[in-house]
């Protein structure tokens, strides 16, 4: 009876959380006026700037610095021509309300359903990558290579478990701050979950180590081209302006996150009942460790070692391609598809067993793949309803005329709200910077502080925003959103206080 009651009041699944957020956002679009800023975009084929007014009318202008100056866009023209600014830039002081798109009952239902399908279609490259990755993991597991490797690793980790958290969070945090490592980290969960469980930790520790690395790392971006660099260019400054403060923020925030995670993880290792997911500990071990027997030392065959090496090399190539060659998920999926074909020769499995294990492995991550697509649907509703610019314009008007410290602190919270609705860091940068950056001149602060408020605000909300990557990550480790909120809220408050101190000191020195 108690179990039935507990089950009745259990927190909704990731799918349901996204649908609830989608319904709430869709409801808000009925009350928030629709509006648009005029935008300026460079057309390389014509070598012209194309101005799109709120009415939809387009005007072509010479692609010169004078045109940008005329429209009060303080960006060097070369940044448009070399592709650094590749999204339409908002033109300051051009916001106009527009007629709200007509939607009756059936139109609203249609948008609700269509946005979900469109979200899956728009995310197809990520979905394909996730399914192929699942298939590869299924094959490697079938060879027994993963179990044998885990047994050897469990021996090495004895007494050194803390270093596992430190290394994983620090390295992923480094990837986040330099090249915006985010969705790519999905690939690491299937490998790290058994390792963390064997170290005596729980599945929540896995998502903490990985997700805090990517979220806090991206938040405290230093040279990330998708946030700091593009935002600085859109603000008309060099991305190296304000770099010392960003480096200090990365060290401080990643350091706090590592200490916070280790404190929780060690408490769980010493007393498993302290785990926030203690009620599913046995289920997690059965799911992620399977029939792994740590009391028996089995053979680690050459085929198994070779299969693990091939699998690991896939990650090395992926990281190099993303960081050095600008790869996205289509290219990454190709890498792991190539790994699949190599495993045909190294795994030593019969054709039927190989195919079955690949399909079964892909099926295990199908739920994760669908979560990725559903999360995109919220942004689609915002775009189709033309309310993002209205929210942006409202907050811009509210923060005008404040003193410098109050201005920068409030702007940080403004970017938290904007980051919830506009999950694309580059999209938010190009939309907001031509409008927000000039306000720095009005209140007498350096424009690099606007970049910091943007980075830290839109990055921090990623820790808990259901429209971001967190629900996908939680789905990978079988942890509920409520358990994550319980774990992360104290850390969230700590980081908020840290950021407010940094911002206040930054405008005063």
Task: Tell me what the structure shows.
The protein is mainly α. Helix content is 69%, strand content 4%. The chain contains 23 helices and six strands. It has helices spanning 2-8, 14-28, 65-70, 77-81, 105-122, 124-143, 145-157, 161-179, 189-198, 203-219, 225-235, 243-270, 281-289, 302-324, 329-346, 351-364, 366-385, 388-399, 404-421, 425-443, 447-460, 470-477, 481-508; strands at residues 35-36, 39-43, 48-52, 58-62, 89-90, 96-97. The strands form two sheets. A four-stranded antiparallel beta sheet has the order 4-3-2-5. A two-stranded antiparallel sheet has the order 1-6. Strand 2 (39-43) and strand 3 (48-52) form a beta hairpin. Mean pLDDT is 86; it is low at 1-8. Keywords: Cell membrane, Membrane, Transmembrane, Transmembrane helix. This is YfcC family protein. Pfam families: DcuC.
């Amino acid at each position: 009876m108690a179990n039935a009651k507990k089950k009745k009041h259990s927190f909704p699944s990731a799918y349901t959380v996204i649908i609830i957020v989608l319904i709430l956002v869709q409801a808000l679009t009925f009350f928030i006026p629709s509006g648009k800023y005029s935008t300026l975009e460079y057309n390389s084929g014509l070598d012209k700037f194309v101005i799109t007014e709120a009415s939809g009318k387009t005007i072509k202008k010479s692609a010169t610095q004078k045109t940008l100056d005329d429209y009060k866009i303080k960006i060097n023209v070369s940044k448009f021509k070399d592709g650094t600014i590749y999204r339409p830039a908002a033109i300051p002081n051009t916001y106009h309300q527009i007629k709200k798109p007509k939607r009756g009952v059936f139109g609203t239902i249609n948008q609700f359903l269509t946005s979900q399908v469109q979200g899956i279609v728009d995310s197809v490259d990520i979905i394909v990558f996730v399914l192929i990755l699942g298939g590869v993991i299924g094959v490697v597991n079938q060879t027994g290579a993963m179990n044998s490797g885990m047994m050897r690793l469990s021996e090495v980790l004895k007494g050194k478990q803390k270093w596992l958290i430190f290394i994983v969070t620090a390295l992923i945090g480094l990837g986040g701050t330099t090249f915006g490592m985010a969705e790519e980290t999905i690939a690491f969960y299937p490998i790290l979950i058994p390792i963390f469980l064997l170290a005596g930790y729980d599945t929540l520790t896995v998502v903490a180590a990985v997700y805090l690395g990517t979220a806090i790392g991206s938040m405290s971006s230093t040279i990330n081209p998708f946030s700091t660099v593009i935002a600085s260019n859109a603000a008309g400054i060099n991305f190296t302006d304000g770099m010392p403060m960003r480096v200090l923020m990365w060290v401080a925030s990643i350091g706090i996150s590592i200490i916070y995670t280790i404190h929780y993880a060690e408490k769980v290792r010493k007393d498993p009942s302290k785990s926030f997911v203690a009620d599913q500990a046995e289920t997690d071990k059965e799911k992620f460790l399977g029939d792994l027997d740590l009391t028996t030392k089995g053979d680690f065959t050459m085929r198994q070692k070779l299969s693990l090496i091939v699998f690991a090399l896939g990650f090395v190539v992926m990281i190099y391609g993303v960081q050095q060659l600008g790869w996205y998920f289509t290219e990454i999926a190709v890498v792991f598809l190539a790994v699949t074909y190599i495993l045909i020769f190294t795994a030593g499995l019969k054709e039927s067993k190989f195919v079955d294990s690949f399909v079964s492995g892909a099926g295990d991550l199908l739920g994760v793949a669908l979560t990725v697509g559903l999360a995109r649907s919220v942004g689609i509703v915002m775009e189709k309803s033309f309310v993002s610019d209205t929210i942006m314009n409202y907050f811009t008007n509210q923060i005008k005329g404040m003193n410098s410290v109050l201005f920068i602190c409030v702007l940080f919270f403004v970017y938290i709200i904007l980051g919830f609705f506009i999950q694309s860091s580059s999209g938010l940068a190009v939309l907001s910077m031509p409008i927000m950056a000039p306000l720095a001149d009005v209140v007498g602060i350096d424009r690099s502080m606007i970049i910091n408020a943007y980075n830290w605000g839109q990055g921090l909300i990623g820790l808990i925003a259901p429209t971001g990557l967190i629900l996908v990550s939680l789905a990978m480790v079988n942890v509920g959103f409520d358990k994550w909120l319980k774990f992360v809220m104290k850390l969230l408050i700590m980081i908020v206080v840290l950021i407010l101190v940094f911002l206040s000191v930054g405008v005063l020195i």
